[in-house]
Each structure stands twice: as C-alpha cells, then as structure tokens.
Design a protein that fits this description.
By secondary structure, the chain is an alpha+beta fold. The chain has one domain: Glutamine Phosphoribosylpyrophosphate, subunit 1, domain 1, CATH 3.60.20.10. The relative contact order is 0.17. It starts with a strand and ends in a 16-residue tail after the last strand. Strands 3-2-4-1-12-9-13 form a seven-stranded antiparallel sheet, with helices on one face. Helix content is 18%, strand content 35%.
Length: 274
C-alpha cells in the first residue's frame, strides 16, 4: 500500500526535514517504489512535482529535498501500486480546479470495483481507483454547493458524508487540500504531530538526521504534520483512530468526526461533530 504525508501551517514553512525521511521510504527503507509526488500551495497557486520513479533515487525528489519551498499546505505521496500501472498519469497527488481554486488529493488504500457514474465535469486521466474517487468527490461537492465555494466547515461536513460512503467500499485513507485547509481521513492508519513553542529537537526514523526547531522558528509558528507512519522517533505523534475525518487549519486540528456508522470518538482538545 501507499504512504501519505501532509503539512498544514499557520505561517508558510518548508517541509525539507519531514520530506527527507519520507523520501527514504520510497524504495530505500520501505517498499513504496512505484512513484511519488508532492504538491505545495503558494497563495492561490499550486506547485506540483511528480515522478513515476522511486523517490529514494529520483533526481526530482533530491531537488525537492534541498529546495526550501515555503507553503501553508503540502500533500505528498509515495506509491505501492494496487490499481493502475506504474506511470506518470497514475502518480499521486492529483490536482484539479474547482470554484476557481486548485484542489489536491492523495489516497492510500484500495476501492475494489469502484466505477462511479461521472458526468464529464471531472474525468480521470489515468486508471486508478484513487483518481476516480477524487473526481467523484469533486463532482459530488459541485452538485451540493453549485458554483460557490463552501467555507471550510461546510466542506468538512460534506466530505464526511462522502468518506462515510466510500469508506464502506474499502480502505480509504486520504488527504484533500485547498489553499486554506487540509482534510485527512484515517480509514485504517494515520498519525499527526503539532510542532509549536516551546520547540525542541526532532530525529528522523529513516535517516540519521536531527533538527533543532528552536533555531529555525519563531514563537508564533505552528505546524501540523500528518503521516501514515510517524516520521520521527522522539516526538509525541497522535494516532488518528480508524474511521475518523480531521480538519486542519492554521497548523492545528480544528474538527474531528467519525466516518463509521454508530461509532463516536472524541480525542482530547478536538471538537467533534457527527
């Protein structure tokens, strides 16, 4: 299966440290060698890098690792193919325009026999269940909200309904991001950590690299990092219970809701609405 990496911040921040560990999992310290990609929001624009080669040996990944692109929302993905051949068009994350803004989506899981009726407004280019799911999500949201972009709270509520439906079809971990928020669905496995003052050192699991964030940040900085498997071995990563949807804004988890019928969970400090 694939792995996901997301970052949501209150101040534009680079992801070089986290991406260093994540890149190694694409064929060096793990088996996700069927392509990789990363998307950065910069204002209303989106900068996307994709490569069907393993991230551990990709020259493009080496560039991203050394290029301190500052963003408030980042989505990255390393692929272990389940549906769809290894090719550029099947490489996550996927990007589409809706309501005059870009949306980024990456998926970890498998939706078997998923062939939704698409109306032509958003069609997949490749042949993955992930891209079909993304098109279905955008189509469903457009039918619900018309030509007016919803606020983050309304978007979250609508995505919860979609995740409840699609999550019943199979494993459906995903990250969905716009320029001002990031939504994460933990179908089976996701964790997050929030870095804020007082900042300390962090050490990667997959590379012998340590960063002292107190030397690189200000007291106002706040960064949430979401990953399939925690990237560091000395930070308090919070597991996201299976069957939960999370809204991240300004570097914090601000909403959480269940996506499994009849199950209610409320992690400390996070507002729950079901």
């Amino acid at each position: 299966m694939c792995q996901l990496l997301g970052m949501n911040c209150n101040i534009p921040t680079d992801i070089c440290f986290s991406f260093t560990g994540f890149q190694a999992r694409g064929g060096a310290t793990d088996v996700h060698a069927d392509g990789w990609g990363i998307a950065f929001f910069e204002g209303q624009g989106a900068r996307v890098f994709l490569d069907p080669q393993p991230s551990c040996s990709s020259p493009i990944a080496a560039l991203v690792r050394q290029y301190p692109i500052r963003s408030k929302n980042v989505v990255a993905h390393i692929r272990k193919a389940t549906q769809g051949v290894v090719a550029l068009e099947n490489t996550h994350p996927f990007m589409r325009e809706q309501w005059g803004r870009y949306w980024i989506f990456a998926h970890n899981g498998n939706l078997e026999n998923f062939s939704p009726a698409l109306d032509g407004s958003c069609l997949p280019v490749g042949n993955t269940d992930s891209e079909r799911a993304f098109c279905w999500i955008l189509q469903t949201l457009r039918k619900r909200f018309g030509n007016t972009a919803p606020a983050a709270e309304a978007l979250f509520d609508a995505v919860r309904e979609i995740a409840l439906e699609l999550g019943a079809r199979g494993e459906f971990n995903f990250l969905l991001a716009g320029s001002d928020c990031l939504i994460a669905h933990a179908s089976t496995q996701l964790s997050y950590v929030v870095r804020q003052a007082p900042f300390t050192q962090a050490h990667l699991k997959d590379e012998d690299v340590t960063v002292d964030f107190s030397e690189l940040t200000t007291e106002k900085d706040r960064v949430a990092v979401i990953a399939t498997v925690p990237l560091t071995d000395n930070e308090a990563w919070q597991p996201m219970p299976p069957g939960t949807l999370w809204l991240f804004s300004e570097g914090s988890p601000t909403r959480q809701a269940t996506t499994v019928a009849g199950v209610k969970r409320k992690p400390a400090g996070v507002q729950e609405r079901s």
